[in-house]
Every structure is written in structure tokens, then in C-alpha cells.
Write a structure and sequence with these properties.
Layout lengths: L1 H24 L6 E6 L14 H7 L7 E3 L5 E3 L2 E6 L5 E6 L13 H15 L1 H7 L3 E8 L2 E6 L6 H4 L10 H4 L19 E7 L3 E6 L13 E6 L3 H9 L5 E3 L3 H7 L5 E4 L8 E7 L9 H10 L2 H8 L4 E3 L23 H10 L11 E8 L3 H12 L3 E8 L1 H10 L5 E7 L4 H4 L1 H4 L18 H12 L3 H18 L3 E6 L3 E4 L2 E2 L8 H4 L5 E2 L8 H34 L1
Parallel strand pairs: 1-10, 1-11, 15-16, 15-17
Antiparallel strand pairs: 2-3, 4-5, 5-7, 6-7, 8-9, 9-10, 11-19, 12-19, 13-17, 13-18, 14-18, 20-21
């Protein structure tokens, strides 16, 4: 009898210990993550811009209909499920019924419709270009169902409607206002895993855990702090010193050093949804860059290999056109290549009638760029000097540079990080179709026009056969490269560094730097203690005490049994 009782207690104790162990392996609540960012975002309305710095932060504040895994397949976000009609013209999304905005107002299909009709299709460069001339109507049969109807099949729609290209905004806060000046652009109200707390401009921006997030149990962190560090060197020092937990885009030199440190994880995953091509924009509405011969001469004067080797330390590849190698199915490797050829560049400039002046200068160009692109701007300036082109660098704050280039068109050359996105129709199309020559950030900044290119992108958008789509994109790349529509410089290979104590990082998303916060948790509770982590630790302690008491009972029973024997 006593033996059986001892066995029962032992089994109970084992179960308790396994329960404690299981809880220890489960995500822990509490703590904060400090993320180094290079600049203030400028604003926090992600529906009116494609600026990466805005979406980096707003990806934790807002939600999209879907997200994308590492293979760029759509996975549920606000939409729990969806159906696509056989003809590819109708998309029906069923929203999570528990979704609500941070102010407690339920998120409904009317918010989705308002976001598209009044914000995205007017102000968001990628969304308006992708569907603006095709979307027939948006229906809302009930609060949790939204139906998109297109005039023509649109095969890339599920790649478009994530939180960066289609963040769902609160209709009740934006309806009847100017969305460019609405006060909630600096104090946003979204439906994502974190709520806005404060923004001390030039210093930091803090988000707090959304206790009513529609995904049960998430997020785990108490807060996320985005710390403004304009210098990459400053961010690297802060990361090494423990002031920063998550360091995006460290320089190649920093990567080499951080790779040797204990307790640091380096990864190049989570970039699949961006596929960036760093691009030099010519203003084709101004002489002399309106002359194809001049653009061709510049293309032969730029040494892309030098830029990759010296500026990126080999972490990248020379670009051959607007479509990144990361979108392998649509990438055309056989386009014309403009290798560095100073003799040919000089010949083309002479033929175009731009003789050298007394000081060897043929003409001057105004190069507008943000401070973060200073090194590449200086390198391009030095390379063009070899063929007699004087480049005047106009370094500006990021927002001012965007305004000068895309709104006022006051430049000759400019620099932009154009993201391909998960499909060429989303990230590439906006940069080259004539319908997107507009005062919209990150649109067709070159003001390039070619009717056949417009037609090819329209055909590709409606073609369900991926092989045929690729053929359209291959032809478009041939034309664009021959026309020297832009100067596509290089495709960077970016990395990220974070503390090894952070779990749940880079687990599934092709845009992990945006989605990380809903999954991340500290193995040890993190750098600060929140109510959630205190509760969880209290539970661990209680279960441990129960286990100890059970062990004591076992020992007492065994000793008592022995004495009776």
C-alpha cells in the first residue's frame, strides 16, 4: 500500500517537473527590445508612403489582410481565410472577428474599403500603380467580409495586401480629414500587436503591448523601443555595449566583427519580401539627361563592381536592371551590360555635342540625396569626373530629398532604394510605367515613358501562367536597359544582428524586420520586467514549491515505512 502510494506521489512529482520544464520552454511574457534606426520616420501613416523607415515601425502598429512566408506565400493576418474566383477577378477576404483598433473600435470591412478607396489608391505609390486602373469596386456584404472585384484578372493581389502595401487604417479617425495632415499621423491608432506610446523626435519612439491583439496569446514583449542613431558606427557601438538588442543593416565591417562575438545572432534571412535594387535616378525631363547618348555615356562611366567591392565589401552584386535576382523567375540575366569603358563614354559625350570646357568640364549635374547615401553619391561623383561631368552633391534630410525628387522634380540625378517587393507588379511597375509619373513619393521619379513597357506590365499583371508572365518581364527588361531608363547600381545583401536571448526571431516572415515584434520573446524575461513576466515567474515558483513539497512527502513516507518495517 505504502509502496503504491509512493509511486503515485512520485509520478505526480514527475508530472509537475515536466510541467515546469514545458512552461520554461514556452514563450515568456515581458521585457522590451531596443531597435536601432537611422532616422526618425518622418510620419506614422503607412498608407500614404512607401518609405522603409515608416513601415519598419508601423508594421508593429498596423495590420494587413495577409502576410508572407519565406517563400512569398500568403499567410493569414487580418484575413483568416480568402477565396479567389476561377477567373482571377474576384478576391473575397474573411476578417478575424476579434480584430479591433487600439482605441477599442472594432475593425470591419468598411475600414478596409475606406483604406483602399481614400488612402492607398490616392497616395501609396505601389498600391495605386498596381491596381488603380483595374479595380472595379469593393463590396462589403457584412462586417467581416470584403470583396474586391477587378475588370481584368489580377494575379499579384495576394502579394500586394500585406501591412507595408495595404495597411488597414481606422476609417473613424481619417474620414473627412486631410490624410496628409491628420494628427494621428504622429500618434497612430492601428490594430497590430503594439500600441503607440510616445515619440521623442530625434531620440526614440516607444510602442506598448496590445493586450487585445486579435491573435491569441501574442505579443509576448511589453514594449518595443526604436532608438534613433543616425550613425551606423554609433549603432554598432550601442549594440556591442548592450544598449541595443536589434541592429538592422550593419555595415560589412560591423558584420565581420559582430560575427566573432558570443551571444549574437547574424542572419540574412527575412529580406525575401523586399529584393532591393539601389538605383540612380536620372531626370529625363531635363537636358542633358533627356539625351539617350548622355545616359549611355554615364552608364559606361560608372563602375558598379567598384561600388560593390569597396562600399559593400562584397556584400551584394552589380545590378543589371530593375528586377532583382531574388525574384529569380522574372529576372532576365541576358540584358545588355554597361561595363566601365571610359573611352566609349568620352566618345558618346563628344558625339552628343558636349565638348570639354577650359577646365575639362562638359556640364554640371545636381545630385540630390539623403545623408545615408553620402558614400555612394561621392563615389558616383568621382567616377563621372573622369569623363568631364561635374556633379554637385546636394545632401538633404531624407524627407526633404524625397520632396525635392518626387514632388518638386528639382534634380538632375537622385538616389533611391527601390524595393521590388514580392512581385514585379508591386515594386518595379511603379518606377517605370507612365501612369505613375506623379507627385507621389517613390513613384516613376525618372518620368520615363514607353508605351510598349506599359503594355508589357499590363499583360503580365493579368496573366495566370507564370512562364508567360516571365516572358513579358524579360522583354520589358530588355527595353528598359537599352533605353537606360535608370542607372541600376547594385543589389545589396543585407544582414541583421540580434541578441541570442531573443527567441522567435526570423521564424517565418519574408519581411521579418517588420513582423518580428509579434513573435519575439526573451528566454530570460528580457531587459525589463512586465506584469506578464512577473506572473509567469510566480507560476514557475509556485509549481517548483509544489514539486519540492511532493518530494518531501515522498521522503517522509518512505522513512516512515522503513521505521514501521
Amino acid at each position: 500500500m505504502i509502496k503504491a502510494k509512493s509511486v503515485s506521489i512520485t509520478l505526480f512529482c514527475v508530472l509537475i517537473i515536466f510541467s515546469v520544464s514545458g512552461l520554461a520552454d514556452a514563450p515568456r511574457y515581458g521585457g522590451s527590445v531596443v531597435v536601432a534606426v537611422s532616422a526618425d520616420p518622418g510620419g506614422l501613416n503607412p498608407a500614404v508612403t512607401t518609405q522603409g523607415g515608416v513601415h519598419l515601425i508601423c508594421g508593429s502598429i498596423f495590420s494587413g489582410l495577409v502576410a508572407h512566408d519565406f517563400n512569398l506565400n500568403p499567410v493569414p493576418d487580418l484575413a483568416e481565410r480568402w477565396e479567389v474566383s476561377p477567373d482571377g477577378r474576384t478576391y473575397t477576404f474573411h476578417l478575424a472577428p476579434a480584430a479591433e483598433f487600439h482605441d477599442g473600435v472594432p475593425l470591419t470591412s468598411e475600414d478596409v474599403r475606406f483604406t483602399f478607396e481614400q488612402l492607398l489608391l490616392k497616395y501609396h505609390s505601389r498600391a495605386r500603380t498596381s491596381i488603380g486602373d483595374n479595380l472595379r469596386r469593393i463590396n462589403t456584404p457584412d462586417a467581416q467580409t470584403v470583396v474586391f472585384e477587378f475588370d481584368r484578372p489580377y494575379v499579384a493581389f495576394l502579394q500586394l495586401v500585406d501591412v507595408t502595401n495595404a495597411p488597414v487604417m481606422p476609417k473613424h479617425l481619417y474620414e473627412g480629414t486631410d490624410p496628409l495632415t491628420n494628427p494621428h499621423n504622429t500618434s497612430p491608432v492601428g490594430s497590430g500587436p503594439f500600441k503607440f506610446q510616445e515619440w521623442v523626435k530625434g531620440d526614440h519612439l516607444t510602442l506598448l503591448r496590445n493586450e487585445k491583439y486579435f491573435k491569441p496569446g501574442k505579443p509576448y514583449l511589453d514594449r518595443v523601443v526604436y532608438k534613433v542613431m543616425p550613425s551606423g558606427a554609433m549603432a554598432a557601438i550601442a549594440f556591442e555595449g548592450g544598449e541595443v538588442d536589434y541592429f538592422l543593416n550593419p555595415s560589412p565591417l560591423d558584420v565581420a566583427r559582430l560575427n566573432k562575438l558570443d551571444g549574437v545572432v547574424l542572419t540574412d534571412k527575412g529580406r525575401e519580401g523586399y529584393a532591393t535594387v539601389e538605383t540612380l535616378i536620372p531626370n529625363l525631363t531635363r537636358a542633358p539627361l533627356s539625351d539617350f547618348r548622355v545616359r549611355r555615356a554615364i552608364a559606361h562611366a560608372i563602375d558598379k563592381n567598384f561600388l560593390v567591392e569597396k562600399l559593400l565589401f562584397g556584400m551584394g552584386a552589380p545590378a543589371t536592371g530593375p528586377i532583382s535576382r531574388m525574384l529569380a523567375w522574372a529576372y532576365n540575366p541576358n540584358v545588355d551590360k554597361y561595363e566601365k569603358n571610359i573611352a566609349l563614354s568620352n566618345q558618346l559625350l563628344d558625339e552628343a555635342g558636349h565638348a570639354r570646357g577650359p577646365e575639362g568640364v562638359r556640364f554640371r549635374l545636381k545630385f540630390v540625396h539623403a545623408s545615408s547615401y553620402a558614400k555612394v553619391a561621392e563615389a558616383v561623383r568621382d567616377q563621372l569626373r573622369e569623363v568631364g561631368i561635374a556633379v554637385d552633391l546636394q545632401q538633404m534630410e531624407f524627407g526633404a530629398a524625397v520632396d525635392a525628387v518626387f514632388i518638386k522634380k528639382n534634380f538632375d540625378l537622385a538616389f533611391a532604394s527601390y524595393e521590388n517587393g514580392p512581385d514585379p507588379d508591386i515594386g518595379v511597375k511603379r518606377t517605370i510605367v507612365s501612369s505613375n509619373i506623379a507627385p507621389v513619393p517613390f513613384s516613376n521619379g525618372a518620368s520615363y515613358r514607353n508605351a510598349r513597357v506599359d503594355e508589357l506590365f499590363a499583360l503580365a499583371a493579368s496573366e495566370p501562367d507564370k512562364g508567360k508572365r516571365a516572358a513579358y518581364y524579360f522583354e520589358a527588361q530588355d527595353i528598359l536597359v537599352k533605353d537606360v531608363a535608370y542607372f541600376w547600381l547594385y543589389e545589396p545583401k543585407s544582414s541583421s544582428a540580434y541578441r541570442s536571448g531573443l527567441q522567435g526571431m526570423y521564424a517565418w516572415s519574408a519581411k521579418s524586420n517588420i513582423y518580428f515584434a509579434q513573435d519575439a520573446w526573451w528566454a530570460d524575461g528580457g531587459r525589463s520586467t512586465g506584469a506578464g513576466s512577473a506572473t509567469r515567474r510566480g507560476l514557475y515558483l509556485l509549481l517548483s514549491l509544489v514539486a519540492l513539497v511532493a518530494l518531501g512527502v515522498i521522503a517522509f513516507s518512505i522513512n516512515r515505512s522503513r521505521r514501521r518495517s
